[in-house]
Target: Acetyl-CoA synthetase-like protein
Amino acid sequence: MAPSPFYRSTFGPSTALPPSSLASQKEIDRFLTSPDVAGGFFQVEEKTIKGRKMKVWSGMPWPTYRAYWIERSKTFASLPCLTYTNGPQHTYTLTYSQAFDLSALLAHSLCTRFGIKKGDRVGIAMRNTIEHTISWWSVHLCGGVAVSLNAFADEDTLRFCTNDVGCSLVLTDAERVGALASLVGQEGKEGEPGLRDLIVVPYGRGKGRGRLSAKERAEYLSESRRVHDFDEVVKKAKDSVGGKQVPLPSVDLQPEDYATIIFTSGTTGRPKGVLATQRQSLHNLGATLYVVPRCYLRRNRPLPDAEESAQQPQVKTLIGYPLFHAAGLLSTMTTGMAKGEEMISMYSWDVQEAVRLIGERGLTRVGATAHMVRQLATAASDLPTLAAVTHGGASPPSELSAELLAKTQGGLTGTGYGATETNSMATGCYCDDYVNWPDSVGWAPPTITIRIVDPETKKEVKRGQLGEVWIHGAGIAEGYYRRPEATREAFLPDGTYRTGDVGMMNEDGALFIRDRIKDLIIRGGENISCTVVEKGIYAHPAISEAAAVALPDKKWGERIAVLCCVSPSSSSSSSSSSGALPSEEELKATARRILTNRQEWPEFIHVQREPLERNPAGKVDKKMLRARVLEIAKEKGWGDYAAAAAGAATGSTSNVQEGQRESKL
Model:
């Protein structure tokens, strides 16, 4: 049985406890990994797997996703499992039993009709519909490798990713059929067989937006073209068993068999498919579930017992992350279902729709990206049922911690840190720790080891010093599918993953992420953290998003530029009633009050009403913003571009930039 969920009523006071009152992290780890605690769920043992020495969750009862889904769906059979809403008039819900039956029918068809077998790569490219989750579990019931394709990628990228990992079948929705239908029957990568079949959801459950029109159905859906209607596929499977219980595919799966491929966001080039085994991917389940008991014990509270847990209402969780993102798929959806939660998803993120759902349906928990959570935290509406909010994906403003504590009335709030390559969570900072150290991403579970390393000498640095974050543990993926060179660069032979993030660890072992190495601004040879600069801008109450980037400069190499946008409902103290934007000088003054190091003061600021550009994974796209900054610099005459703004020709500064850009951590 999975550990108990979080209950605000049993947690204690709604204000954070000071660090001096909190139990030791090491003591908590020793206690929780005991066989007598939480049914032995968090027991840890050392193993050597494929030459990698690591600590694994030995008490977790599910060796594979297939075993997990079969057991969890029976345990919570009558409870609501999946709810999809496409607006107030279009909402659809399945119980755990109904969800399992639908996934079993689809799995039966995948194996018997479409020839999917153990190890085959099956792609899923959809919005966060019910069919997305049903498809995910169906692939695992077959023993296939579930490939999470970025549903919001451009058509060329979506086709590239499908071919790059050799998907033999893809399950998709109406919005993506045009991009993928042309791949069916075509030769794959390096002469290998390509995409054989495409199964299309003609509409998201609840109908509404995203429907396939009658013309599109006639154009695309055709058995002869091997483009199939999802509903017809399920109906034929149901008819084939004649009303009897559908037989599950017979497959022998082991923890070291491959389970998932989730693509990186591709901010520096083509996305890479991260390949993980059953054990590696399921590791996140233990790492995420570890959060709640650690929060109780941190403030010396007893863990809820089984009887108390049984009397609590079902947790209802809103998924803000896209389900092709590791945080949405693994840390939110899969982990929530371990505890029998109802998982609610929307057609697309809309804060007003989220507020409506939380209020009308009494939602308990939200898992979303930092900018989504900030919108919720600053929404005017009271949300009395909301007891837990967690986020990840980007560094938030420091104020978010206090805002969430107030919004949830002392509930479980916090952030996690990880990557696709770590199968989501590697560290977490929650509850009292999140309030006391709002800029930290917290501590690792006992199966993960974090090291801060000088990227040049490859030696570990002292506590408090900056270096590259290296992560070792049972959740580290095998590597990048069909990318041996990229795998060798990022993954060491012992299974350590080099994150490319700049961070430091304090004396208590809490991790702080300062930047991506490639995003550091190097001004006159000094490394400037974009995250630190951004926190100075976030101190202004009107700012909802901020991103610092480097502006090339002949003298300094690079200078600090910031793009930011205001909250739709905010106005600055100096702004007029007409809703004028805060001025560049006003924002600079705010940042200077917060940032003690003059080298970190922003030199150029552009403020706008429109949200900042993001990549398909929902992260602020620094590559795109750097190009945008160059355009703005030429328009406004920033730095070396003053002459250009005045109409005079200027030479290229790219050689200067490359010549002076040498990072020293």
